[in-house]
Target: Molybdopterin molybdenumtransferase
Amino acid sequence: MFEVADALATVLSHSRPLEAEVAALSVAALGQVLAADITADADSPPFAKSLRDGYAVRSADCASAGAELTVVEEVPAGKVPLKSVGTGEAARIFTGAPIPDGADAVVMQEHTEKLGGGRVRIVDAGVKSRQWVYAQGAEMRAGAVVLAKGTPITPAACGVLASVGQTAVPAFPFPRVGVIVTGDEIVEAGTKPRPGQIRNSNGPMLTALTARGGGRPRYLGIARDDRAVTESLIREGLDVSDVVVIAGGMSVGDHDFVPEVLKELGVVIRFRQIRMKPGKPILFGTTEKGTLVFGLPGNPVSAFVGFELFVRPALRILGGHAEAGPRTIRLPLADGLAESTDRPTYRPAKLEPHATGWGVRPLTTTGSPDLVSTQRADALLVLPAGNTRADAGTLADVVLL
Ligand SMILES: Nc1nc2c(c(=O)[nH]1)N[C@H]1C(S)=C(S)[C@@H](COP(=O)(O)OP(=O)(O)OC[C@H]3O[C@@H](n4cnc5c(N)ncnc54)[C@H](O)[C@@H]3O)O[C@H]1N2
Ligand code: MOO
Model:
């Protein structure tokens, strides 16, 4: 039986970034990772620009309050100043407009008084050189790397890419994830279960976890407890995916033959059990061409926890992220806790406001099938094996989802 850390290290040692593609920049690329450095094609801003509506002035003219200046022209955003600002002069200027030659500062219009005859009084004293001026190249210099390879395409990065004129960029693709569930008792959501049957919650949950975790899910269906059907579905999964996730049939029951089928299909099984709760029967294997195969327990909460701890980190590496996760932080317990467990335990939990910032509260649950409580989770509280007796406020390890 593997320890959690060894299991994760094994998964990551078989995970490599996928071959880069060219991604057109639309919301569909959100979350992909850049596969090349992106450089600025020009300075940004391309010219020194005003950060305020007001007057462009020479700061030396406005050392004391009450300076009266002649307004030589008006410069709206999108226009180029035609005149330079000389001693005793100012230009009416608007946010985003280029600073005219000669001026070195902008005074906000709230700090001025319009006089007759094209004159303006500067009410402020001590106007500083460069105030409300955004210098040419302050954000980026032409030729500089603005987004390094490995940077995730976030909403702000989309804005940066547009500002350097990019419409398509080299990026790592979202890994293709085939999702298969097993079990004779499972029927799809649109069907009314007959006695002994239950609806398939793992399929929709795992495709959604895949999408949230940076993978492109493809739901392949239910493998009935029949060897031939299971084999053909898994074969299809291996053909079309970078990662295959199979839920159920991992345990030791007479119908749990998924591991045997995997071996027949050439999957090298790297581990079959992890010392953790829930989710002991978690399998991981690899094929010769590098496809990763995860077998998760049929119990939905166990499948959820197993996905977050092992599948999601693999998807991140395949998708080009530098950090695999899962991210673990230490947070105070919202309540006291007294629990014994024979294996390290990952309890679905909720973050909540706490005296010192954020705290964590495990969700009340009826056990590994209980998705109704788990759907509220935004974290997993980690309890070490053995007896845990802790007061409210004690720091505990928390995996962020
Ligand atoms: N004698 C032993 N029995 C069990 C052991 C063991 O070590 N010895 N391990 C237990 C643990 S831990 C778990 S977890 C389960 C995992 O078993 P399987 O992976 O083989 O899962 P199944 O038996 O197929 O299903 C378990 C449970 O989950 C329900 N299920 C399955 N698929 C779905 C689905 N798509 N949607 C909703 N619910 C699903 C299924 O009906 C069962 O109730 O084994 C323990 N037993
Ligand atoms: O550990 Mo199983 O995964 O208890 O439900």
Remarks:
- Residues 181-183, 185-186, 198, 200-203, 247-253, 256, 278, 280-281, 297-300, 302, 368 surround LQZAQKY5 (ligand 1) (CB under 6 Å).
- The CA atoms of residues 70 and 215 lie 62 Å apart.
- Helices lie at 4-13, 155-163, 202-212, 227-240, 258-264, 300-318, 371-374.
- The mean pLDDT is 95.
